Amino acid sequence: MIELILGGARSGKSDYAQQCAMSKNNSVLLIATATADDAEMQQRIELHQQQRPDNIKVHEEPYDIAAVVLANKDSKKSLLIDCLTLWVSNLLLKYKDNVENSKEFTEFIHCLDNTNTDIYIVSNEVGMGIIPLGHLNRVYCDAVGRLHQAIAAKAQRVTLMVAGLPHSIKSEIKS
Known about the structure:
about 180 residues; alpha/beta; 7 strands; about 25% strand
């Protein structure tokens, strides 16, 4: 089962995803995509670490999340990927205009077809505002939007978080 969990900044996405993953399975592998490139981000990471239950194991991977998913494709653990927008940012810094053509981007989308474990994917919804100024900003928003569409097509569930409240956008399975 794949669930894509979208929402704005501080909408409750990560907490909701963690609750879902833990309610399904007491053993969770968090694939963390963030990098601590500044003091504020380091503080955010530390706060998440302090709040995280002990039964959530962490694999930090800023680029090749498909490899981690495939290595755990038959795992009895739930996989929690947090978050795709930071991951796309990492790829944007690495590949500039070619994010969507990168090996990591295409392999991640395809790896979702080859897994037998539950996956909860967290990402920010960035496409609900105006078209951004600046070429790289548009490349970023386009890449995130296309990624969300590709994952939503494969996912059994898509949830939009607003003010800490989950709103079902797609549900092909019973709760």
